Amino acid sequence: MARITQIHVNGKRRAIDADAEATLLSVLRDQLGLTGTKFGCGEGECRACTVLLDGKPVHSCLTPVGEAAGKKITTIEGLAQDGRLHPVQQAFLDAEALQCGYCTSGMIMTAVVLLREHPDPNEKTIREFMQGNICRCGVYPRIVEAVRRAGAVIKQSHA
Amino acid sequence: MSKRHIPETLIEPERYELAEALFHHFELDRRNFFKLAGGGVAVFLLLPSGLAQESGGRRSRFQEPLPQNIGAWLHIGETGAVTVYTGKVEMGQNIRTSLTQAVAEELHVKVEAIRLVMGDTDLTPFDMGTFGSRTTPTMNKQLRRVAAMARDLLIGLAAKRWSLDATLLFAADGKVREHSGSRTVEYAELAQGQTLARAMVGNDTLAPASEWTVAGTPLRKVNGRAFVTGEHQFPSDIRRPGMMFGKMVRPSAFGATLASLDASKAQAMPGVTVVHDGDFVGVVAPGEFEAKRAAEAIQVQWKTTQQPSSAELFEYLKTHAEPGGRGEYEAGSMKDGLAAARHRLKATYTIAYIQHAPLEPRAAVAEWNNGKLTVWTGSQRPFGVQGQLQEAFHLSKNNVRVILPDTGGAYGGKHTGEAAIEAARLARAAAKPVKLVWTREEEFTWAYFRPAGVIEISSGISSAGLLTAWEFHNYNSGASAIRTPYDVPNQHIQFHPVQAPLRQGSYRALAATANHFARESHMDELAHRAKMDPLEFRLKNLKNQRLKFAFTAAADVFRWKDRKASKGHGFGIGGGVEKGGYVGTCVEVEVDHGEVRVVRVTTAFDCGAVVNPNGLQNQIVGANIMGLGGALFEAIQFEDGRITNGTFTQYRVPRFSDVPEIQPVLIDHKDQPSAGAGETPICGLAPAIGNAIFNATGKRLRSMPMVPNGLKKA
């Protein structure tokens, strides 16, 4: 059984000791204490576990840690810089686009990618891109609003 | 060949060991309390005995009189920090925020100065649980009262300090001030060097809703930042030094018992402990991956028994009902009512089993220290879980602490402590802290379900469109909101409990969704018989002014009068009264090639004086979106004791593409007591959708979910 002893998370090399087949999610949460990434279903249907691998969103609950080794992993904990929230985080907070907050990390990580690929998304684009993310509290309309606001802020900062 | 291990200890309660320690008696415990909380001023709210059954006092397992019935306590530390202790729990309904507002309002301190300690059996007063929309009508008032008592106590301390009459002073901005004169003193200064504790029933004046300045405002979630950064620790996020990971080996079907077990392969794995205790089989391992692998290595066979299937569900409910049923209400004579009717109508409605599917599954971390058990878990009933742990491990109350971190959704689905008991059993065997997080399949199978039901209605209306007779029988789904809010002289209403085929329990609004679906669908059918506008028909048969207003407010904002139905495009209305809240919902649907799309929803909701319009909007919108799943497509399927669609791939829940435009209309009745808001707004949606589908297609759908596979073409 291959062991993985190091991964690259949020700009840092971190020592781990895990079977290559163990899920990236369990290593992040249980070995590195990065519990902001959540377990929701284990079947790739809710996206609560979304992290970025070299900038691409993946279901960390289905990704063996062996596949993540050597790649740059970004989790929700890696978005804020020097205590300053990422515009998507700030927009979720401002729009209060959360109730229980359990889906929030996955929503934010997905929205970060969405806005990179579609800097000025309309409602339809947002809904379609976020379709794989489940929120059981039903905050969807506010999440759409938050993504739009964040998009406007990011666009302005690039102007 | 089976290789049975000798059970380490039986999980059987030994009743004689359940003797409970005395509940904290703060006259005696004062020194300990201040040792824990630090110096300062503390106020304990004593409750009249009626209220203590719900919140406060201790669980009276032996029906003994309670030494003291404490609803809540509040501590002002020497730095001016305010800590409030309540047994309620936060699971997304945002009561941490609304309760903080209540305290800020009466204590006259900034929201940021207040911290709520919630749902910790060692630290907070007993509470029956966070359910039934009871937090706002009870705990909100209790916290306002305890805050008002603390405020008046601080005013009294200042009065003493300045040798003035307390009536010459008032509180504002965390200070006591003189009405005339410039003297002020901070709460922090008054609390310094004190260990002053007061326990009172409290008759201090509470600010009326019309004068609220903090309560009633759209305050944001008080700890919202911790959720967008991922810092907040949900129950499943708790980590303890030396913590191991548990995994259960589940029976192959409901009602199955263990036939044989061979755990030798799992036991040979490094660091793995196998726990086998009767039908309880689980493993503990150093990591989640290792635990899963060990559990899969256990060879196990189960003896199954015959179990009912969802295909025969509604017939089963009718044939397994307790004889006679439970009379809920009787008025006049059904015979006379039907005889007087111009139109008579009989119809049957069915409601499927559904799952709460909170995004955070059941989870617990259990830790044993010198015979004392501490469990972090997600539940709506921390003290209930404490009791279950006491029973399972025959421990005294003092030896079980249950801590409820703010939880990832519950919706009525987390009243029980399964994961807590399992984690505790595994942790005891492993002699290390153990985390157990249920898989989605476990959550879909071994949690409980919202009860399925069959509802039969027989009714009559006069030629003038007035209800003359109303007979209503609910099999299994429950009695919440079973009574009609409409005026009918002749009524016969019964609930029929059933020996249920699945484990069932609470759900958002309980049976009110089922009963409203049946009643409001039936009202629509009657309106069509009477050739009346469905809104007019309702208003004509209704005396309840607040419900009339909710219907009218929803219709006005929705522009009900301007609606124009066409083929494949329809409008519907539904609503009712439940738990002190009044709801009216209008819906617009589109039906295209059998696909039903809800286009627009307007829900007007009156829950008395609004405590937080921001949170209330979220609750109204969220209830409608959750309700949309049960209305249109959610249904648990089962066969031979197995759930056959227990994954998010197979069990469809509402997603972004399902969400209509939703307009919440907040009716702020400042002169009415604040009622809970998490449940009742769900009630009008399902019937309004069904009525709109009828309007669009002429097809009357009498089963929830209405279109699990799309609308079959007529």
Query: Helix share of residues of chain A?
Result: 25-40%
Oligomer: heterodimer
Basic shape of chain B: globular
Number of strands of chain A: 5
Structural class, judged by helices and strands of chain A?
alpha+beta
H/E element string of chain A?
EEHEEHEHHHH
The overall number of domains of chain B is 3
Give me the CATH fold name of the largest domain in chain A.
Ubiquitin-like (UB roll)
Give the averaged pLDDT of chain A, no decimals: 97
Q: Please state the second-level CATH architecture of the largest domain in chain A.
A: Roll
Number of individual domains of chain A: 2
Report, as a whole number of angstroms, the end-to-end distance of chain A. Answer: 51 Å
The share of residues in extended strands of chain A comes to: 15-25%
Fraction of helical residues of chain B? 25-40%
Q: How are the strands of the largest sheet of chain A arranged? A: 2-1-5-3-4
CATH class of the largest domain in chain B: Alpha Beta
CATH architecture designation of the largest domain in chain B = 2-Layer Sandwich
Strand order of the largest sheet of chain B: 11-12-9-19-16-17-18
Q: Cα-atom Rg of chain A, whole angstroms?
A: 16 Å
Indicate the CATH class of the largest domain in chain A: Alpha Beta
